[in-house]
Design goal:
The chain has about 220 residues and is an alpha/beta fold. Helices cover about 40% and strands about 25% of the residues. The strands form three sheets. A five-stranded parallel β-sheet has the order 2-1-3-4-5, sandwiched between helices. A four-stranded antiparallel β-sheet has the order 6-7-8-9, covered by helices on one side. The two termini are about 35 Å apart.
């Protein structure tokens, strides 16, 4: 799941990115409201964490502009303000939820799960294809032969493949969706992670495989009988 974090306090932003990535989210971080609007034009996010007090364009204005365009992406507002009027203004402007600073990371994660639940099926649900199950709650990849707990990028790549079985996904799409637009990662990092996943699927005697199509991308397919 890919999130956009708009928070101008860079130390807090860095800490939040670390927390979110440890919990298997991909995050793009921006530090002002105009950048948030620019990134949202790319329309590549599952949710937004939006600070209200930001330079250039404040968070409430960002929220209103996003909703004026008919974009229903889940948005969680962050602010140092905790007055009722501020909460009401944010919710009336179209925010899905509101979290006042300071907050506990567990509450932040719970609120993100809550606002994105309707966007991406139940976060705690399991994806299944063939004899393989991917548990989105525990990040476990399993068959009757055993299981592996996947690392962050491995989990996100396999989740994307399992949500789109038989569909080609290009290396560029993996980079964009999982590493982010600002990443300096090389395109061959995708192949490296595909290799990791293939080895784990093989070790679990999976009856599905990640198929490469030259100059096109990767797809998840049943093993030929």
């Amino acid at each position: 799941m890919r999130l956009l974090l708009a928070e101008d306090e860079k130390a807090l932003s860095k800490a939040l990115v670390a927390i979110l990535e440890r919990n298997n989210y991909s995050v793009d971080a921006v530090y002002d409201g105009q950048s948030a609007l620019d990134y949202l034009e790319m329309d590549n996010y599952d949710g937004v964490i939006l600070d209200i007090m930001m330079p250039k364009v404040d968070g409430l204005t960002v929220l209103k502009r996003v909703r004026e365009k008919g974009n229903l992406i889940p948005i969680l507002l962050l602010t140092a303000k905790s007055e009722v009027d501020d909460k009401v203004e944010g919710l009336d402007a179209g925010a899905n939820d509101y979290l006042a600073k300071p907050f506990h990371s567990k509450e932040l994660l719970a609120r993100i799960r809550a606002i994105t639940r309707t966007q991406a099926a139940q976060v705690n649900s399991k994806l299944t294809m063939g004899n393989v199950t991917l548990d989105r709650a525990t990040f476990d990849l399993s068959t009757a032969k055993g299981s592996f707990r996947l690392a962050n990028k491995e989990f996100q790549m396999l989740e994307l493949l399992m949500c789109n079985p038989h569909q080609l996904i290009s290396s560029e799409r993996f980079l964009e969706k999982i590493w982010g637009y600002d990443s300096e990662a090389e395109i061959n990092v995708v192949w490296v992670y595909i290799s990791y996943l293939r080895k784990k699927l093989s070790a679990l005697h999976a009856d599905i495989q990640i198929k490469a199509t030259r100059n096109a991308g990767y797809s998840l397919e049943e093993n030929p009988s």
